[in-house]
Amino acid sequence: MLKIHYSLDQKPADSIRDLEPPKVLNISVRNLVLKTKKGSVLAKGDLVAEHPSPCGGACHAALGGKVKAVNYHSLTVECSGGAETVEPVDVASMGKGSELIRALQELGVDVSPLSGRAEVLVINGLNPEPGVSVAQQLLRDGGEELRAGLDMARKLLSPDRTILAAPKGEAVSIPGAETVGIRAKYPYSLDALVVRAVTRKEFPEHTRVINVMDLFDLGKVALTGLPVTETFMTIDGHNYRVPVGTPVRHILEALELNVEPGDTIVLGGPFRGESIYSLDQGVKKEDYGMFITSSDAIPEVQDAACMNCGECVLQCPARVQPHLISRYAEYERFEEAERYGLNSCFECGLCAFNCFARRPLLQYIRFAKAQIRAKGQGTKA
């Protein structure tokens, strides 16, 4: 069995840096419900699109400007550089209940971990993937927002116990939460594995988990009443505050990063991230890193036949069989994929990363899940 440990202990090099604002935003609106149109003039924070799920957060303009183009994938805003912003919403004064949940959702917060009653609230304080140091950065520098976010989460969930899962050996804390140190190794940063590590149970009832980045956003919304319009990204060893929708091309030019022909640019992380299809592609809220991989560093993924080596099964923390699930997904036999544990997959990416045949296992799994979701929505409609 191949045993490789992937460290998540990525201490920030310095304070969070601000990125020069772009002249154009390309905001991803795929699978969202569009709430604006070409020619519309937007202020910073104006609603752009709503999430189709009952819990997903809405999408807003990170900068003011005019909508120049709209297609299936993205909405292009030509930024004006004006200072006009939307009026803040006083969420801090709202009582616990559906009104507050709806207001947070409309301000861009994913409220799925904030509904109902929780006996245990777990804060995932580990960096999401190797090479990304955003979580540790926010634990070090985002004290005010994290405290406000935790107050809001506890107001909604009324947990009996609140636990901050932090890298073992790190002296970090959030007032109101007990700190538990766990292994800073990937894939132990996945929510399900973090919960198991701190509760000693798999998928315990009445337990909610929220990561540090989302808790920070929740706190900022509570303090300012303004929507979520930016993300934090680890780029070339430093953490930047980046407006959502900023084109990759702008990031490369602003930071003077060199890209050679054949290189791959990945948004997210090395395991779960996605390679971009264009330098004009804009970053999303959940993109916590950007990586440039040279053409000769990692063998190219290909639609090769499975070798039946079993390495993906040995690596899988969910204890499913990625080689079988991906085969069924490849041939659009989605019911069989579900039967073999498709919905138990954490999408950690270890199977694809360690596949000797270089098959796109994670991509097949995500494709199957997306097709099943689309079919379900179509049936309901």
Automatic annotation (TrEMBL):
UniProt-recorded name of the protein: Electron transport complex protein RnfC
Keyword Protein transport: no
Superkingdom, natural source: Bacteria
Molecular function GO terms recorded: 4 iron, 4 sulfur cluster binding; electron transfer activity; metal ion binding
Phylogenetic lineage: Bacteria, Pseudomonadati, Thermodesulfobacteriota, Desulfovibrionia, Desulfovibrionales
Keywords: Iron, Iron-sulfur, Metal-binding
Organism: Pseudodesulfovibrio hydrargyri
Keyword Calcium part of the UniProt annotation: no
Pfam family membership, one: Fer4_10
The gene coding this protein: rnfC_3
Stretches assigned to the 4Fe-4S ferredoxin-type domain: 297-327
GO CC, alphabetical: membrane
